[in-house]
Amino acid sequence: MNLTLLGVRGSTAAPGADFVRYGGHTSCVAVSAPGEPPALVLDAGTGLRRLGTLLDGRPFRGDVVLTHLHWDHVQGLPFSGAVDHPESRVRLHVPVPDAGADPLEVLRRAMSPPHFPIGPDELLGEWEFVPLLPGPVALDDDRFAVSARRIRHKGGVAYGLRVAEPGGVQAAYLPDHLLLDGGTDGAAIADGVDLLLHDGQFVASEQLLATAYGHTTVPAALGYADHCRVGRVVLTHHHPDRTDAALDELAAAFPETPGGRPVAFAVQGTTLAVSPKRNVSQ
Ligand SMILES: [Zn+2]
Ligand SMILES: [Zn+2]
């Protein structure tokens, strides 16, 4: 399984010279089998605009699973030629407040006039809007299995996602997660995965902000990775003010978790090959 990081920024996009190396697009991850085009995408932030580069101009056909509906996770939907395409076929999994809610109507609250010129059902191609609820997620493509679990964040329903190659490697994606140092919220979704892609928006000195905004500090995320006994952890959803230089400093300061697991800071445009974790006892 490959995870291509199309957007690694949290809250809002971060253009400019100080953000070139780690990238400024907001949350979006393309999941693919090696050598295959992606048929599964996690989140639809502005990074979704780059999906076309992985498809050589072909339309996207597959599933897009949203962790939650904050702007930084959905604003790419109307700006990606790969999904807004006459020949695209997209099943969009929309977190809804309760099982009876209409996913299209929930999404339309943020995407319709006067907030935006069109509604979700005016996107080009064939679209299916399905509710995302806790548990296994029904995908078009059986090369991957996804399950969803409610996790703490702020402002509405938010999910952590687990993606597995049946009989193979597993990854977990929790880009927005309210976690205090020592916290273990929702750990079952990441338990034992080979790769954890996790919220690392704030640093330790910003704990009050992290909690107020429903996010995690870097040390809390690394402790969580140890608790979940993951193979390695990649921190994402970088704060929009965190410059390349500041992220380099963090990467140098945190090469591994307290339990010895490798740590990396997500870089837009890179592909993470998820490989089986080595045995780590802690
Ligand atoms: Zn976010
Ligand atoms: Zn959020």
Automatic annotation (TrEMBL):
Coiled coil: none annotated. Residues 63-238 form the Metallo-beta-lactamase domain. InterPro entries: Metallo-B-lactamas (IPR001279), RibonucZ/Hydroxyglut_hydro (IPR036866). It holds the Pfam family Lactamase_B_2. SUPFAM superfamilies: Metallo-hydrolase/oxidoreductase. This is MBL fold metallo-hydrolase. It comes from Nocardioides panacisoli.
